[in-house]
Design brief:
- The protein has about 240 residues and is α+β, with helices and mostly antiparallel strands.
- The chain has a domain of about 150 residues: Immunoglobulin-like (Sandwich).
- Strands 3, 4, 5, 6, 8, 9 and 11 form a seven-stranded antiparallel beta sheet that branches. A four-stranded antiparallel beta sheet has the order 7-2-1-10, with no helix packed on it.
- Strand 1 and strand 2 form a beta hairpin.
- Keywords: Membrane, Transmembrane, Transmembrane helix.
Amino acid sequence: MIEEEGLLDDGERDRGVPRRCYVLAFIVGFFVLFGLFSLILYGAAKPQKPKITVKSITFETLKIQAGQDAGGVGTDMITMNATLRMLYRNTGTFFGVHVTSTPVDLSFSQMKIGSGSIMKFYQSRKSQRTVLVHVIGEKIPLYGSGATLIPPAPPAPLPKPKKKKKGAPVVIPDPPAPPAPVPMKLSFVVRSRAYVLGRLVKPKFLKKIECDINFEHKNLNKHIPITKNCTVTTV
């Protein structure tokens, strides 16, 4: 009887859960917990979007001259150089972001007259920096739209008033009206990507920026504040 009971115990042990089932359960549990942890990190990172503030733009050069386009058509050509200043702030508390952008396009009368780009950079957590973007246009044809971009000629000197009889009113001519500001538009998209858990959790943030600029020739080489004329929207 003792030998039979021993044989029965050995048979029950053989019919127990195989070791490979434990291994499989461990692997499945590990991936489930890892997935939940990744989702928690992704959910925590998503609300911490970067903040972008466009500060100003400075036109260093803006020249209009006669020329020809690629097809030999005579037209006014614009050459310009400007510097855009903006503040980039990473609000993330436990991750840095890699930042790039689409071309920074400057347009006038629905024609692109200049372009630039943000040099790729890395912004560490809870930090900020001033970003400079050089917008350049070299001999861009205007096709008849350049009249308003041509700087006004200096006003002619006022003629000396003639001596009038005593008691006659003196007429002082009004100064010429200043030229109207030239409307321009700036548009681009800033792309920010964070690598929270290596390359497994990498939230992406897209910010579309559009700015209305009123350029005046008297403001050449001066900072033109445009913060209030810019809209920053999440794409």
